[in-house]
Amino acid sequence: MFAALADASRRSMVERLGRGSASVKELAAPLSMSLPAVMQHLRVLESSGLVSSAKTGRVRTCRINPAALRTAEDWIAVRRADLSAQLDRLGTYLENS
Amino acid sequence: MSIVHETITLERHYDATPERVFQAFASPEAKAQWFPSAPDGWTFRPGEFEFREGGLETSASGPPGGELYHNTTRYHDIVPNRRIIYSYEMARGDQRISVSMQSVDLFAESGGTRLVLTDQGAYLDGLDNASNRRRGLEPQLDQLAKAVLAGSLQEGAS
């Protein structure tokens, strides 16, 4: 996954997909890049498991694959755990004071 | 530059009156006993403690010999025994990591108090928090993961 994210264009594509699924054409629009070049980046992202795409008619729609974001979900879980632990400490304090 | 927004909602029941729960936030001596999180020998340094609307509360914490994390809190709305609303920013050294709004809602219920904590954070890109630094995640992946997090989690939750 690290190699997939090493390229600025691919990061930009992933950031765009983070706001919702998009067609290849929509991904290409802000990048001033040809469609074949975007397709090439898309293949790298797909092989990393970070992005998946499906073709309906003539339009290929791309989306983030949430399952690939294990580390980010871990991060959220840790954030939540920190706050949760704080409220547990408050409970312990209230019991013991 | 990007921002990831994240909302965390937590709920607890305490066998204590809303007055006592409120006091645990309002009194510096009380708050010092439960608020600081000090993992792995981290130090915690309290600073200002102005528990009033418009008041400031500051603290710093960090690993032994390491960079300090600064919490700067501004109280906006305080209704005794009912609710507390504040905003806070976190910085690592002099670099801002996140700006968040947090509200603590207290409800009297049978046998005690229901507390609802809502934390709405704006996490700034290229920076991470103590927890994922400890986990040693790749900074670049962090940055990106945060950028895509909100959308994917919403998808995952629906």
Strand content of chain B: over 45%
Low-confidence stretches of chain B: 126-158
Strand content of chain A: 5-15%
Task: Sum up the overall morphology of chain A in one term.
Answer: elongated
Query: Helical element count of chain B?
Result: 4
Rg of chain A, Å, rounded? 19 Å
Low-confidence stretches of chain A: 70-75
Structure overview:
The complex is a heterodimer of chains A (97) and B (158). With 97 residues, chain A is of the alpha+beta class. Chain A folds into 2 domains: 1-64, Orthogonal Bundle (Arc Repressor Mutant, subunit A), CATH 1.10.10; 66-97. Chain A is built from 4 helices and 3 strands. Chain A has helices at residues 8-18, 24-28, 35-48, 70-96, and strands spanning 22-23, 51-56, 59-64. The longest helix of chain A has 27 residues, at 70-96. Chain B is globular, with a radius of gyration of 17 Å. Chain B has one domain: START domain (Alpha-D-Glucose-1,6-Bisphosphate, Chain A, domain 4, 2-Layer Sandwich). With 158 residues, chain B is α+β, with helices and mostly antiparallel strands. Chain B is built from 4 helices and 7 strands; from the N terminus they run E-H-H-E-E-E-E-E-E-H-H. A 7-stranded antiparallel sheet of chain B has the order 1-7-6-5-4-3-2. Residues 126-158 of chain B have low confidence and may be disordered. The interface between A and B is large, with 39 and 42 residues.
